Amino acid sequence: MMKSYDNTLVVGVSQFGLDNNIILPVKIDFSSVPHLIIVAPSGSGKTYLLTFLLGQIAKKPVKLILADFKGIDFTEFDGCKDYYKHSDIAKALDYVFEELQKRMEEPKKDNQPIYFCVDEWSGFLCSLTTKKEQDSFKQKMASILMLGRGVNIFVIMSLQRADSAYITGRDNFGNAVGLGALSKESIAMLFNDDKELIHPKIRGKGYLKTDGKSLSEIVVPKIRDIAKLKEIIKTALLK
Ligand SMILES: Nc1ncnc2c1ncn2[C@@H]1O[C@H](COP(=O)(O)OP(=O)(O)OP(=O)(O)O)[C@@H](O)[C@H]1O
Ligand SMILES: [Mg+2]
Hints:
The protein is an alpha/beta fold and 239 residues long. A ten-stranded mixed β-sheet has the order 2-1-10-9-8-3-7-6-4-5. The chain has one domain: P-loop containing nucleotide triphosphate hydrolases (Rossmann fold, 3-Layer(aba) Sandwich), CATH 3.40.50.300. Strand 9 and strand 10 form a beta hairpin. The chain is built from seven helices and ten strands.
C-alpha cells in the first residue's frame, strides 16, 4: 500500500482567535503548499519558532536535517549525524541536492519526506568568499525549492531580511512568516499584496501568508519545556 505522510505543521496560534478568547492553531500543509521562509530582525524569534517546528517534525516518521549557521543556539546537537553547523551547511545542502537528483531520476510516490531546516541562510551565504560560490549554493537551493514538493523534500529557512541577494524570490516558498518589526524590503518581498495590513510587532508575533489563503496574524506560543523538546529533536537528528 502506498504510504501517505502527514506534512502539516502548526506555526502558531491565531491572534484573531486570542482576541476572541479561543486558542486556534494556525497550520500549514507542505503536501499542498510546500516550504516555509521565516523572516524577522535579530532577536524577534526566528530560532524560537524554528525550535517549535523542529519539535513537531521530530515526532514524524521523516528525515530531519538541521543546518545552523550560527552554531550557538543548538549546541546540544553537536555530534548528531544530521546536525550541521557553520560552513558545514554546504555539506548539508550538497546532501539534500544529491538526494533531490536521485529522487528525480527514479520517481516514486512514497518517498520518505526530508525536512531541510536552515537557520540563518543569509549568514551562510555571506560567509562564502566568492560570488561564484554563493551563486552555486543559491542555485542548488532554488532547485530544491522548485522541485522538492514532487519528491517530498521540504525546506524551512530563516533569514534576518528577505533580500534577493539571498533568495531568488518568494515564489517558491508557499508559506512565509514574518515576525517582529519587519523592514520595508522584507514586507515587499513576503507580503506585497497585503502590505497595508502589516504593522510592526513585538518578538514572537507576526504574520503568515500561505499561497491561496488570506493573511493571518499569528502568535508563536511559549514552549513549556524547551529542554525536553530539544531531547526529542536530538533523538530525531541521531536517527
Ligand atoms: N514566542 C516566544 N515566546 C517566548 N519567548 C520567545 C519567543 N520568541 C522568542 N523568544 C525569546 O526571545 C529571544 C530571542 O529569540 P530568538 O533567538 O528566537 O531570535 P532570533 O530571531 O533567532 O534572533 P537572531 O537573529 O539574533 O538569531 C530568545 O531568548 C527566545 O527565547
Ligand atoms: Mg536566531
